[in-house]
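Form 12-C: Joint structure prediction
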Amino acid sequence: MKGLKRSFLFIPGNNPGMVQTADLFDADVIIFDLEDAVAQSEKDSARNLIIQAFTTYKYKNCETMVRINAVETEDFELDIEAVCRFELDYILLPKATVEDIIVLDKKLEMMNSSTEIFAIIESAIALETAFDIAKASKRVKGLLLGGEDLTADLGVVRTKEGLEIQYARNRVAVVCKALGILAIDTPYTDVVDEMFLVQDSEEGKRFGMMAKASISPRHIETIHSVYAPSSKEVIYAYRVLCAMKQAKKKGFGVFSLDGKMIDSPIVKRAERIYQLAKKMGLKVSGVEYDA
Amino acid sequence: MMRKIPKHIEGYGEVREFSGVFSDMNVKKLTQVHVKPKCPGERKIFLSIKEFFDKFPPFDGMTLSFHHHLRNGDSVINLVFSVLERYDVKDICLVSSSFFPVHEPMVKWIESQKVVKIYTNYMSGPVAKCVSSGKLKYPVIMQTHGGRARAIESGEVKIDVAFIAAPSCDEYGNMNGVYGKSACGVLGYAHVDADYANHVVAITDNLVPYPNTSIEIFQHKIDSVIVVESIGNPKGIVSGTTQITKDPLGLKIAKMAAKVIEYSGYLKEGFSFQTGAGGTSLAVAKEVKKLMISKNITGSFASGGITGYMVEMLKEGLFKTLFDVQCFDLDAIQSVKENPRHQAMSASLYGNPHCKGAIVNNLDVVILGATEVDINFNVNVTTASNGMIMGGSGGHSDTAAGAKLTIIVTNLVKARLPIVKEMVTTITTPGESVDVVVTERGIAVNPKHVDLIEILKSEGLSLYTIEELKEMAYSITGVPSEISFENKIIGVVEYRDGSVIDVIYPMKG
Amino acid sequence: MKIIKSSSSGSLESNDLLVFVSPNSGVKIEIDSIVKLQFEKSIYETILKVLEEFEVKDVCIKIEDKGALDFAIFARVKTALLRAGEEK
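Section 2 - Result
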């Protein structure tokens, strides 16, 4: 895991206006969508657009993810070939099953890619085998709950209150906790009525979700306020930064904390959490913010 | 300034070049006005425009004025000229505070060179296109709202007949804009016409019994009253409700602008504020409102063209007063009608640089838009980057000059066009009066504000120099090719004090 | 690559462009753009770059541009060419 991940923002993969400004909305991870947001006849166009976008833009202030098409589709292979042509942090696999993860893992192995995987849990069978899905490859770093497709599969009505996905939220969160990977809550899908956004975000967090997906840049701020870093995270980040300062003073290039080597991704993450906590004015005992 | 402005412009006259925002503040004289007294029993009323012109015949070289409170629903200019067609009259000068697409019929008057000169503060649509292509005999003179009032008060612009669209009027000329089928709210831009034109006509589609209280412009200024079927189309006059932008980039810019205001130190008890009716500007108002509530601040006033959103803030007690020169929606009209704290103001009171202190002088913060901004902080809201006129200052330069903190909110890049660039196509508002530029990719502060730069930096806002913003824009769009323009001047941009800040050339081809 | 049929790609939304490709002898490029005055040359060069990359010698390309950036122009032209080209 690299950076802090609270928000995952879906960007339609075939929309140049959105693709070129994707990193301006402060989302922690941008998901370029080749699946549902792209018409079947435009899949090739979207692939080419994303390849070109990644060749041009570095998307520096966030991490990047592409939602490819499901393993069973004919676009799957083409999508993999496309995303292996540029530097990408994660692949998001829709309609994931245990077998699908194995196929994707092998494919990435073949392509010599080190890209990590997040899987969408959006069917009854996926939910009941979520643990196995997450364990099917070492690359799997998190599960995203797909509330819309799941409720469709269950044949129940999706509501703003979300009682129908309580169990799913709980289950995905528990599986992820057990395996030490990230549980990402389903996006809030009403872009007109944003009344329930806060409630929906808090609901996910209450059941153990650690981040939330979003289909609107306007939702990011709310998600961040709900998924603000915990005091524990802030304290650890503060200790990492203090240890680094000490090490620098002594002229050490590398250093350790609690017997663990601290490498640059950890420092980066610590810096980010610290700055964030500072920016949000989080009061955490024992942590001092520099002026 | 690196602008080629000639000393003399054909059809405009001697040029006094812009030399600083407050460089012309000597004692001023108001012009004299012709008054034809009325005896008791003398009637003012005419039942048609033709009847009026039969009594007061139009003549060559006359100057007619109009206000634009009916905006794109205005019928008055077109009505008056449809009657003028029956008279053989030429060399007309038009002083209209704005032109909108609805004024398309004026194109043929310009093309046939019967209308030869135009003063305005804003133009869009076919008239703007026609003028931009060089068809108006003399250069159009683009003024500011405050500058128009100043020019008329000083006598620089002499109006022979002012036609004042009056949504509600009695037979002796007492009028207001808040009642009637063509209600438009405040009549702020028309006051100076009523005060200084040689002949002042109220033109109404809603004649009410005398006296027509509440009165905005009183009978002692009015020579004639013309009654017509309709002065405007309500659909084009006001919008239902002005919407806050949903565009995520606009919202991001608004949030950043609100942070600048928060940290600038001006957001405190007694705060005064103006923002436009554009979606992003309104979004800034929404953010500012949140801040005012959380910090428990009551502002002294908000001003300018007023929208329902500002009315809401007045009602909620966030501002004590609204100074309203023009209503943008029905909520604003309703409010000015019933709320004594919602004050109407004239254009002169609003922004005239040569009065004894305009409202803009009391502004803490103004939020303004831009079509282009350059590395000297000059702002263009007059022409598109191809030179075509598509706007004008309105109150842009007036508020920028008056406010303590002038913030420009704009996208850094719009459909491949870099908005922050080396040099603006046309200078509307001088960089000297612009303090901060906020874009979705960063903020630039005028380097003269050393303290503000330090404060915003320490608060962690993403600050760049304006050159860096320009470079950032160019790195996204590529460097735009130079556009070549014709030599003939088609427009003169007057600063609010009447000096010439820029001239407009038509593009080649 | 040889262009054997007509195709199109893209859209007329802001920041996008519509590309039409058809068989031709020699290279013919027609550009219509809302930023033609400022960026015609750069748009032209981007199109040539794609033609070079895919070794297309005979083609007629028409674009209707709504202010797309170079990356989008490249991608849309590439898509249209691949849709019109002979399968290898």
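Section 3 - Comments
Chain B touches chain C at residues 385-386, 414-417, 476-478, 480-481, 483, 507 (CB under 8 Å). The domain at 248-504 of chain B is CATH 3.40.1080.10 (Glutaconate Coenzyme A-transferase).
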